[in-house]
Amino acid sequence: MSKRKAAYASKLKRAIHILFFKRHAKPGVKGWELRKALGSDYPKVLKILDDYLKNLDLEVKTVFEEERKIEKPSLEQLDRARHYIALRGNLVPKEAKMMGWRIDDFAGLAITIAYITSKKGKASRDEVEALLREKLPGWKVGLNIERYIRYGYLTQDESGQMYLDWRTRAEVDQKALIDMLLSAETKA
Amino acid sequence: MQSKKAQEKLGREKLRRIIETCRSVEERSLDPFLIDIGANLGTVKEHFPEWMIPEDLCLDAETLHSLASVVKLQSEWVKHRSTSLYTDPFLLEDKLKKMEKGEIARTFLKSWHPLIEWEQISLHSMAEAIRYWNTLVPLEDRWKETPPEQVDIGSMTREELVHQRILRDKSFSEELEIFWQELKKTVAGKGEKGKIRYWDFIGADTYKETVNRAFLTSFLVTYGYATLEIHPLEEETFLVPYEKPVAKTGMKQLVSVPISVSAADWQKWKRGELE
Q1: pLDDT tens figures, B169-209
Q2: Domain limits at B188?
Q3: pLDDT per residue over A140-150, tens digit each?
Q4: How close B62 gets to chain A, by Cα (Å)?
Q5: Nearest residue on chain B to A92, judged by CA atoms?
Q6: What are phi and psi of A173, to 5 degrees?
Q7: Smaller CB count within 10 Å for chain B: N or C?
Q8: Structural domains counted in chain A
Q9: How much is the pTM?
C-alpha cells in the first residue's frame, strides 16, 4: 500500500469514528471539526467514505446552514455545514415499525412536515393540530407533536408558531415528499 | 370643509389602520399582496405635510416601516413561489384529508432517510461517573439504622405528672361533681326560676377557662346532672341543674345541641354584648 493510500485509509477510519459515534447532544459533526481532525482535505475523505458506504445503503449527508442544497459548495460553506451518516435508501413499513414508530406516527409527521413546508416553513400549532385530528385520535395529536419536537423534527416559538427543525432538514427530502403526496392517487 | 384638527385626526386614524393591517398580515401569515402598497404610500404622502409634532412624525415613520415589512414579505412570497418547494397549501391540505393514513405513512417512508447514530458514553460522562462513584458513601453506611436513644430508668412524682398534664389533679367524676355543685349554687344565687343563662355560667375571666367550663358543662348535661332549655325564637339558652342526677337512657331519643364557644363570642360576653 502506498504511503498516500495508507494515510487516506487511516483518515477514513477516523472519519467513521467521528461521524458514527455521537459526540454532542445532536448527531453529526460540523465541517470545521472534521477539518481539525482529518485535515483540510476532509471533503475528499468524505467522498471516499460516501462511495464506500454505498454498498451498505448508507451515505454521508451534508446539511448546509443555508437550508438548501448547494451544488458546488465552497470550503467555507462545508466548514459551516453539518455532516451526518444517513440511510441512502428507504425503509419498508415493516422495518420502520421495528424502530418503535407506528404507522399513525409516520402519517402524523408526514402531514405536519408537508403542511408546514407548504406554508413557507411556518404554521400555527392550532392549524397543525386541526389537520392532524382528521387522521389521528384527538388525545394522540398533542402527544405526537411533542414527540416530533423532542426528536428535533419540529420546533415551536412562544407564540405557538411551528417550524421545521434540524432533523427534518437532515432526514426528509421535502420536495420528494410533497411531490409524492400531490401525485398520489386518492379515492374519489 | 373640514377643520384642520379634524383633518389631522382622520389622517392619524388612516395611518393606524394601515399599521394594523400590515401587522395582521405579518402575524397571521396572510397573503402580503392583499395590501396595496402604492395606495397606502399615497395616503402616507398625502397626510405628511399635516404632521407638526414629534408623535405624528413617529406615527408616519412607523407606517412606512410597516409597509416596508410587507414589501419584504411580498419579496419572500415571490421567491418561495418560484422555488420548487412551492405548493398551494389548500391543495395539499385537501389531498392529505383524502388520503388514507397508511398511504401517507408509506409515502413518507419513501422520502425519509433516517440518520445513523450510535449512543456511547463520552469521556466527560465517564469522568463524571467516576467522580460520583468515588464520593458515594457505601450502602452499609447509608442504610445504617439509628439505634433508639438510651434513657436511664427513673421515677416521677404525681405532681410532676399533673404538671405535664399526663394525669389530672382530681378524677374526672370528682371534678364533675364539684362543678355540678357550683352550678346549683350559682343558680341559687344569680339564677331566676331555677335556671341560669348558659354564657353566664360558663363565662370566665380567660377564654381558656371558658372553654374548659363549656367542656365540663357538656358532660353535666350528657350525664343527667343538668339540662338545657333552649328558646329558639329569643335565641336564648339556659342551664337548669337537677337536684339529683337523672338517668336519661331509655327516656326518649337524646339529641345533640351544638353550641359555639368562639373567642369572638367570649369577647362579646365580656363586653356584655352577648344576649
Answers
A1: 677 778 888 889 999 999 988 888 888 999 989 999 899 89
A2: 172-270
A3: 999 999 999 99
A4: 23
A5: B109
A6: -85, 95
A7: N
A8: 2
A9: 0.54
